[in-house]
Structures are given as C-alpha cells and as structure tokens.
Amino acid sequence: MTLNVGVIGTGMIGQDHIRRLTQVLSGVAVTGVTDIDAARATAAAPKGATVFATPAELIRSDKVDAVVICSWGPAHEEQLLDCIAAGKPVFCEKPLVTSAEAALRVIDAEVAFGRRLVQVGFMRRFDADYRRLKAVLDGGTLGAPLIYKSVHRNASVPAGLYTSDMPLNDTLVHDADISRWLLDDEIAAVEVRLPRRSRQGGELRDPHLVMLHMAGGAIVDVEISVNIAYGYDIRGEASCEKGIAALPNRPATVVTDAHGIRQAIPEDWRERFIEAYDQEFREWIVAAGAGTATGPSTWDGYAATLVGDAALRAVASGAREPIAMRDKPALYAAPVRKAA
Ligand code: NAD
Ligand code: ISE
C-alpha cells in the first residue's frame, strides 16, 4: 500500500525530503504540498501533487494520509496540533517547537488522542556511525561514560534569517537529543560560555561553548560554530571509565595532486546525513502506514526544547541553569500501540 504524504514548507529541507520521498524511497507518494510562498510550493510539487493554499487544507485533505512538516520552527505548533486533531501521523522537522509551553501543548494533545502520531526529525539517531557508537556504549565493555564531546560546526548559516538565539534553540537541539539518546539519561542543567565572536558571522553571536550536565553526573561539552567556513563538521567522542569511543572521520575519497593529499569535507547537513535522513524516513513510512509514530517522540522534542530555553537563560545569567521536566506520560514510555 502506498502512503500518501503532504509536505508543508518547500524550502531547503522540504525540497530535499520531497526528492527522497519521490526518488529514493518506496511505498510512499507526495500527493500534496504547501508553502506560504505559493510559487515555491508550485515549483517543488511533484507531478500530480496538489498545491494547497494553506497547511490546514493540506492536513484535512483526503488526498493526504500523513504529513511532513518542514516549515520554520515557530510555525510547527499550530501545524502539529492540526495533524493531531485530524488523527494523521506527522513527521516534524526539528525543533519540535520553539518554547517549552508550546511543547507541553503538543504533548497534551497527543496524550489526549491516546496514540503516538508525532516523530521529530532528529536524524542523527538513524545515522550508522551514531548507531555503532551507541551499541558500544550500551554494550558496557568501556564502563560508564563520563564525558561526551560533541562538535557541531556549520560552514555558514543564512544571514538575516538565522538569528543569535538559533545556535541554542535551533542547532543545539541535535546535540541535546543525541546526548540524551547515547547516554540514556536526561539533561539536568546547562551552562554556556561565549568565546570571542567570530568575524565570519558579522553581529551573530557565534561560537558557543555549552556544557550539558546529565542527571547521572556525566558532562557533555558542545561546541556550536555556525560560520566555520571550511565545511560541515560533526564529531563525537565519549570518554568512559575504561576507554573511549568516537565517531569515525567520515570515509571520503582521498585526493592527491600538486597541492597535497586531502579528503573532502561535507558542505552541509544534506551531504553528511544523506543516508541517515533516508533511514529516518524508511522507519517513519512503516510506522505512519500503521497509523502511528516511532523514533524520536514529542517527549524528546520537549526535552531538547527545554535545553534550548535553559541555554538562552544561561547566556543571560552566566550561571548554571537547572532544567525541570514534567512527569513523563505513559504514552512515551510504553511500547507503541498500532492503530486499531
Ligand atoms: P527554509 O527557510 O529553506 O524553508 C522553510 C520553508 O517553510 C520556506 O519555504 C517558508 O516559506 C515555509 N514556511 C514558513 N512558515 C510557513 C508556514 N506557516 N506555512 C507554510 N510554509 C511555511 O528552511 P529549512 O532550512 O528548509 O528549514 C525548515 C525546518 O527544517 C526548520 O525547522 C529547520 O530547523 C529544519 N531543518 C532540519 C535539518 C536537519 O538536519 N534535521 C536541516 C535543515 C533544516
Ligand atoms: C539546521 O536546521 C539543521 O538542523 C542542521 O542539522 C544543523 O547542523 C544546522 O545548524 C541547523 O541550522
């Protein structure tokens, strides 16, 4: 059976996901698209897909079984709540939402619905290198993880659109989520230090050094640099009681010429995580076809949003900012129930 998908937001990642849903993956068709920029939606629409005037019309349409949200973070809450009200499985790009209050409203709606519908786009959990790293840590041969170093470097970000809060409430969410997942622990407090500003990004506050204090005592140190110029560079290394486990340098062709010997660096997230996004959607299509969601949940989106909020508070206060989570609803602990 084919899963008919509607895509909201046809910008950079919306177009990339439409490409993988139409050209790479099977069992799925893109039957609807929408964007506040109607011309962009029309240009991105695959043959035969309907261009809807609004997200609400797309979500309610009989032509759409499940929804992929690729609009800007502040638009996610309303679109997620509409999907839940319509009982449709939804893949939502990160961040889930941009405030803890909004995350709680989405949690409440999904819990009231009674079945998981939302998967959040934390694609690192689907990356083969991260999965191997987690298997080593979970295997226990290295003892308890004590320190995790997470390096998150972007070559550049869109000037004007990407503002000084975004390294912490848009980019850091990936490091927060992967740390919770790898270390199987919640984040209890956040500290932020600001090194001298990079001139690459003009007035943008960049880079950031963030410390995530895990509830069990491990510490994660995160470098967020969003104008590092040379490429998209993602690294991770766990120091454990009896050894270290690290992500490999990505295998790449080695070029030898008159300038020396070198390996190419991915330009951006599209290239570095191409297989992870494919796998993320393979698993989403199976779950959405069964009327539900697996993978990173609304709860995981909420946890990452709290970290972004606390990190922004930590910039203002200069202090270690604690994080208080509400009690975890059973919906996010129990094995996923299939739709009746
Ligand atoms: P973009 O600006 O290129 O595209 C966003 C699109 O959404 C634009 O075309 C815009 O017109 C449209 N849009 C905004 N608000 C809308 C609304 N209310 N209704 C309909 N359309 C709306 O941005 P992008 O880089 O594609 O990012 C989109 C989302 O994906 C963001 O949440 C971003 O954080 C996330 N993202 C995730 C990854 C990842 O690695 N998982 C990578 C890039 C972007
Ligand atoms: C972007 O939205 C992403 O999610 C990328 O994975 C991240 O590296 C980048 O910093 C964000 O802007």
Largest sheet: 7 strands, mixed
Number of domains: 2
Using the CA coordinates, give the radius of gyration.
Answer: 20 Å
Shape: globular
Can you identify the CATH superfamily of the largest domain? Dihydrodipicolinate Reductase, domain 2
Low-confidence stretches: 336-340
Describe the structure.
By secondary structure, the chain is α/β, with parallel strands linked by helices. The chain has two domains: 3-123 and 275-298, Rossmann fold; 124-269 and 301-332, Dihydrodipicolinate Reductase, domain 2 (2-Layer Sandwich), CATH 3.30.360. It is built from ten helices and 15 strands. The chain has helices at 12-24, 38-44, 55-60, 76-86, 100-113, 128-139, 166-183, 269-272, 274-289, 298-317, and strands at residues 3-8, 28-34, 50-51, 66-69, 90-92, 118-120, 145-153, 187-193, 208-214, 219-225, 233-240, 243-246, 254-257, 260-263, 321-322. A seven-stranded mixed β-sheet has the order 12-11-7-10-9-8-15, covered by helices on one side. Helix 7 packs across helix 10 (298-317). The model is unreliable at 336-340 (pLDDT under 50). Bound molecules: nicotinamide-adenine-dinucleotide (NAD) and (2R,3S,4s,5R,6S)-2,3,4,5,6-pentahydroxycyclohexanone (ISE). The site of nicotinamide-adenine-dinucleotide has 24 residues, from helix 1.
Secondary structure layout:
Blueprint lengths: L2 E6 L3 H13 L3 E7 L3 H7 L5 E2 L3 H6 L5 E4 L6 H11 L3 E3 L7 H14 L4 E3 L7 H12 L5 E9 L12 H18 L3 E7 L14 E7 L4 E7 L7 E8 L2 E4 L7 E4 L2 E4 L5 H4 L1 H16 L8 H20 L3 E2 L18
Parallel strand pairs: 1-2, 1-4, 2-3, 4-5, 5-6, 7-10
Antiparallel strand pairs: 7-11, 8-9, 8-15, 9-10, 11-12, 13-14
Helix pairs in contact: 4-5, 5-10, 7-10
The structure holds nicotinamide-adenine-dinucleotide and (2R,3S,4s,5R,6S)-2,3,4,5,6-pentahydroxycyclohexanone.
Nicotinamide-adenine-dinucleotide (NAD) binds next to helix 1.
